[in-house]
């Protein structure tokens, strides 16, 4: 997407700044050594000159005080700058709180709302009033934007590494392990405090979404494949849900370009008081304006009309609102203040509709599950494991394997 390009530039510049800080720090240490060395030499000279000893000692003390004050001021400035204190490794393994010890994480792309969509009955008066309402909204538990910015910065760094690293010949299992290991390291995974938002999707070609390898999956990425990578990060339940597409030959470049342009149109159309059906109309108009030639055929790009974006609530990846990617003029549900949305677009050269197929790999417990008696003992044990480790966050079989669960398929079917 367009924000990917921009955030790559921001990350590169951050890396340059952190390397400059590192070199400045080393230089400062060397200067300190030189100062100490010269001070020792001055002391030796003082021992040989009794008449000027008191005056030299006083002036030397003044110099040292001045240098200490200067160093303190420099350190204060460095702390206030909010720049990364550490440089990220390759592959990424440094936790974000170590890179940004002050807790202020980078701000991503911000788009202005189209205020013409604001409803009259809302009685909004000024931009200042809107900002104050937004500030009050953030004061609730889990509403601090810094939480989502931390998750977003983790996603940016892991995503950029994945885009550089994924190549044909890798298995889908290797790809998801690489992404999830990086996510756990950077977000400093700690149960419900921070961690993976949902299983990493690595959907190939005709598979639109929600495919993650189960144990024993040996599928290998080919040079002709179109790979959709979808992964999420959460901090205190605030989930970042973002995806990107990779291809390794130019055949389907026009399809990727069409979907990217449609995604940007959907993001631009979003905002407070916007009808969800209008967002779908904006996406469809751009997406289906594209056609291209490939393999001797002319392909019309279509929206996959039964896949949608959605709002995201704390610890709940799919909230109660769906964002269509086709025009739905009768859908009058609106976006409101304080809500988080994933604008998801799916373009295809096929029929424009998906069906369920293959083994299930993604699972999630309901946010408020009903009380149901479980007669199978393995189901009771499995539910305990789910409540303890995932709650209402999505998980997959690989995550259960990682926790040491065995013979759980019967339990899954009975929950």
UniProtKB/TrEMBL annotation:
UniProt region (Disordered), positions on chain: 1-100, 118-142
Biased composition annotated in UniProt, kind: Basic residues: 64-82
Keyword Hydrolase: yes
EC number assigned by the record: 3.4.11.18
Any single biological process term in GO: proteolysis
Residues holding substrate: 210, 318
The UniProt record lists the keyword Metal-binding: yes
Main location: cytoplasm
GO molecular function, one term: metalloaminopeptidase activity
Positions with a binding annotation for a divalent metal cation 2: 241, 310, 344
Note accompanying the cofactor annotation: Binds 2 divalent metal cations per subunit. Has a high-affinity and a low affinity metal-binding site. The true nature of the physiological cofactor is under debate. The enzyme is active with cobalt, zinc, manganese or divalent iron ions. Most likely, methionine aminopeptidases function as mononuclear Fe(2+)-metalloproteases under physiological conditions, and the catalytically relevant metal-binding site has been assigned to the histidine-containing high-affinity site.
Bias (Polar residues): 16-28
Positions with biased composition (Acidic residues): 40-54
Cofactor: Mn(2+); Fe(2+); Co(2+); Zn(2+)
Record-listed a divalent metal cation 1 binding positions: 230, 241
Subcellular location(s) of the protein: Cytoplasm
Enzyme class, first EC level, given as a word: hydrolase
UniProt keyword terms in alphabetical order: Aminopeptidase, Cytoplasm, Hydrolase, Metal-binding, Protease
InterPro entries membership: Creatinase/aminopeptidase-like (IPR036005), Met_Aminopeptidase_Type2 (IPR050247), Pept_M24 (IPR000994), Pept_M24_MAP (IPR001714), Pept_M24A_MAP2 (IPR002468), WH-like_DNA-bd_sf (IPR036388), WH_DNA-bd_sf (IPR036390)
Stated family: Belongs to the peptidase M24A family. Methionine aminopeptidase eukaryotic type 2 subfamily.
Stated role: Cotranslationally removes the N-terminal methionine from nascent proteins. The N-terminal methionine is often cleaved when the second residue in the primary sequence is small and uncharged (Met-Ala-, Cys, Gly, Pro, Ser, Thr, or Val).
Name of this chain's protein: Methionine aminopeptidase 2
Top-level taxonomy: Eukaryota, Fungi, Dikarya, Basidiomycota, Ustilaginomycotina
Gene name for this UniProt entry: MAP2
């Amino acid at each position: 997407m367009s924000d990917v390009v921009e955030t790559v530039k921001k990350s590169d510049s951050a890396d340059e700044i952190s390397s400059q800080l590192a070199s400045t720090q080393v230089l400062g240490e060397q200067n300190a050594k030189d100062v100490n060395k010269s001070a020792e030499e001055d002391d030796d000279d003082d021992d040989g000159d009794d008449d000027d000893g008191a005056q030299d000692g006083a002036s030397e003390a003044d110099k040292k005080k001045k240098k200490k004050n200067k160093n303190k001021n420099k350190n204060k400035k460095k702390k206030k700058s909010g720049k990364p204190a550490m440089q990220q490794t390759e592959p990424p393994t440094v936790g974000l709180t170590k890179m940004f010890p002050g807790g202020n994480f980078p701000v991503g792309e911000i788009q202005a709302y189209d205020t013409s969509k604001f409803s009259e009955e809302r009685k909004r008066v000024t931009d200042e009033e809107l900002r104050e309402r937004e500030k009050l909204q953030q004061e609730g538990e889990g509403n601090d934007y810094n939480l989502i910015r931390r998750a977003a910065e983790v996603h940016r760094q892991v995503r950029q590494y994945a885009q550089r690293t994924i190549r044909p010949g890798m298995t889908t299992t290797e790809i998801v392990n690489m992404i999830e290991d990086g996510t756990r390291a950077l977000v400093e995974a700690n149960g419900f405090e921070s961690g993976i938002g949902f299983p990493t999707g690595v959907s190939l070609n005709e598979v639109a979404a929600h495919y993650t390898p189960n144990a024993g999956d040996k599928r290998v990425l080919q040079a002709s494949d179109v790979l959709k990578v979808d992964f999420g990060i959460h901090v205190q339940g605030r989930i970042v849900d973002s995806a990107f597409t990779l291809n390794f030959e130019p055949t389907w470049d026009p399809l990727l370009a069409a979907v990217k342009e449609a995604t940007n149109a959907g993001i631009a159309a979003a905002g407070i008081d916007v009808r969800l059906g209008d967002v779908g109309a904006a996406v469809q108009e751009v997406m289906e304006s594209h056609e291209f030639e490939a393999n001797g055929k002319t392909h019309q790009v279509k929206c996959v009309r039964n896949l949608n974006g959605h709002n995201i609530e704390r610890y709940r990846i799919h909230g109660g609102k769906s964002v269509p990617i086709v025009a739905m003029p009768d859908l009058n549900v609106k976006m409101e203040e304080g809500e988080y949305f994933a604008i998801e677009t799916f373009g295809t050269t096929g029929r424009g509709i998906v069906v369920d197929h293959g083994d299930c790999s993604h699972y999630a417990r309901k946010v408020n599950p009903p009380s149901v008696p479980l007669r199978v003992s393995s189901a009771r044990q499995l539910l305990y494991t789910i409540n303890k480790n995932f709650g209402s966050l999505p998980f997959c079989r690989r995550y259960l394997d990682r926790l040491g669960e065995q013979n759980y398929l019967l339990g899954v079917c009975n929950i």
